């Protein structure tokens, strides 16, 4: 798929999300939060759902957790415009309650399409709901920072930034996980896994694909 086509499709997904009424969460949202960042990102973060500030601004991770996420990205030489950040549900659950299974299910196709279109090398999960997608029985204290390689993509469970802010003892582990994650992306870019899609798949792309993470 051509980059422009991909961008156009992603914008269409975002428009659908903004108009979506597929679950009750639409009732009390101020702004839906489709996601933010590069549509050609190598690295995608999936959180739980928007909180108060995200709901006000229509952007993911802009509150305290987001500031910490920004700090972690800076630590590895990145900023949020070079990655893609989204959530399992795109509208704020009232009083920041946990998203319900039927809400996650109702919202799933948006996330599925975003992943398919962005086609990131690595998906980092932030919190238990995105983790549950890829590590159904995983316990974060045991599996954080341990990559799963599947079909040419890396799935990588991280602590939720809010959990680290609540428990600063987790900071060193979070930082180490972040650095390891960047190494994994670099490594994957330098030698594609045998299970990676064949390059022919992208033969419509220009010779230098507009992947943003030239830093890698
Ligand atoms: N926490 C999340 O999981 N997602 C956000 O967008 C903000 C805070
Ligand atoms: Fe639609 Fe998802 Fe918002 Fe529910 S949370 S209304 S499914 S966009």
In CATH, the homologous superfamily goes by the name: Uracil-DNA glycosylase-like domain
CATH architecture: 3-Layer(aba) Sandwich
Please count the beta strands (DSSP E, at least 2 residues each).
Answer: 6
Q: What is the assembly state of the chains in this entry? A: single chain
Which distinct ligands sit in these coordinates? uracil, iron/sulfur cluster
General shape: globular
The overall pLDDT average reads 92
Q: How do the helices and strands follow one another from N- to C-terminus? A: HEEHHEHEHHEEHH
What's the domain count?
1
Range of strand content? 5-15%
How would a textbook summarize the main sheet?
6 strands, mixed
CATH hierarchy class name: Alpha Beta
Low-pLDDT segments: none
The amount of helix comes to 40-55%
Look at the helices and sheets and give the structural class: alpha/beta
Describe this entry's structure for a reader.
The chain has helices spanning 3-19, 52-57, 64-75, 101-118, 128-134, 140-143, 161-166, 171-190; strands spanning 36-37, 43-47, 84-87, 122-126, 148-150, 153-158. It has 216 residues and is of the alpha/beta class. The protein has a single domain (12-189), classed as Uracil-DNA glycosylase-like domain (Uracil-DNA Glycosylase, subunit E), CATH 3.40.470.10. Strands 1-3-2-4-6-5 form a 6-stranded mixed sheet, with helices on both faces. The mean pLDDT is 92. Uracil (URA) binds at residues 47-51, 54, 60-61, 63, 65, 87, 126-127.
